[in-house]
What does this fold into?
Amino acid sequence: MGLPSKDMIEKWILPHLPTGKRGFATAPLSEIVDCIFHRLKTGCQWRELPTQAFFKDRPLNWNTVFYYWNKWSKAGCWQKIWINMLKANRKHLDLSSLQLDGSHTPAKNGGEAVAYQDRKSCRTTNALFVSDNQGVMLAMAAPQAGNRHDLFEIEQLFKQICELLKQAGIDLRGLFVNADPGFDAASLADLCHREQILPNIKPNPRNTKQQEPYRSGSPVFDEQLYTLCNRARKRLDRRFQSPSGAV
It folds into this structure.
């Protein structure tokens, strides 16, 4: 997947970015956004940004680009942009089922939510995300340290995902949500039922001692649906691995 074009940036992103009290920036906002996306795509250090390739009239240094990235992040602009894009393109989504999963991303340069993870043999950030049945990313919860399992703070994080989907105009009632055995927990099943979501969670063999009706997060498990949708989840998990490290 390449970087968005200038037309896409002007259509989907610029309308949701603040212009400042004076009404202008030190460079065209489209060029600043393009430079930020280059950094996120390549994972290079901020100080290694090839700024001269992005700014034509008045080259900016990397500190200024980071300033705008940080400012827009704290203001919630990126989330607002994403919600607006989901809402406008909802008809193109395949909501016949959703895929819930977690992804450990190596964070070699550190970050706010980073810890050593034995399976990856490095410091990672763990993030829960949901995709549609095509593997298109829909929502992501706040990143957690890599030494946390997928069920850590699951109620709070799943509520974040549900709230973002609701803001994008996606009706959760009656949606199927597929997940692997790592999400087999009564707390998640309860939350899905409260949101009128139908969980299709593969039973975890270690939970056989739990009493019904919550021996499994999904008492009625459809193996065929899980197998078919697992392919989309794996594609998204590979796509989610970003060289930029922790969010």
